[in-house]
Every structure is written in structure tokens, then in C-alpha cells.
Design brief:
This protein has about 130 residues and is of the alpha/beta class. It has helices at about 1-15, 25-35, 45-50, 60-65, 70, 90-100, 115-120, and strands at about 25, 40-45, 60, 80-85, 105-110.
Amino acid sequence: MKKLLTALLTLMCASSLFAGEFKDISIGDLKKAIADKKVTVIDVNGTDSWKTGHVPTAIDFEANEAKLATLLPKEKDALVVAYCGGPSCGAYKAAAKKAEALGYTNVKHLAAGISGWKEAKEKLEAGK
């Protein structure tokens, strides 16, 4: 019984370490979701970077954080994807957590970020 309780407590502690983490989405899956118009993409790289080039359809988080709720879909189970610079960047979490706090349940992370998108030679969209 003692071993079972120890194992259960260990599992609970380990799962709490990963709470709030967001599942990754591949470049291919994101590209398909964009083509199918089934995703809202959020760029967390800053307005200057967004203007230079971002994943097509991406919202500039820096410029739109205060009104993000009005830019996200009404359906709380809609796919929302946040990204930043690349695999070692954690800035995406600001947008992902904000979407989650607004009640969105299907929030994912493009871990490849804008650097991976560019390396894959995917199309960029320039901001205005």
C-alpha cells in the first residue's frame, strides 16, 4: 500500500510539472489547417518581426494582445496555434496561456517557430 501511495504521489507531482504545456503541431499539419481555414495562428515574435514576415494569417500578438479575445473564433474548441522564434524560444507561452485563459481548449505550439518555417522554405506573409 505504501508503494502504491508513493507511486501515485510521484505521478501526480510529475503530471503537475507538465500542466500548462501545449502540444506541438508540425509545419505540415499547420500548413494544411491554414489552407483549410481551420486555425487561428498567433505570432509572438514582436511587431517588427511580424511586419518582416510571418506564417500566413498569423495575428501579431504584440500589437493585438489587449483585443485578442475579439480576434479569436467564437468556438472554444477551435484550433489556435502560437509560435515564436524556434525550438528554444518559450515566448509563445504568453499567447497560448492567454488563449487558454479565454477558454480555448485546442491550443497548440509550432515548436519549429518562424525559423523552422523559413528553413522549410514555406511561404511568408508580410505585415502592413
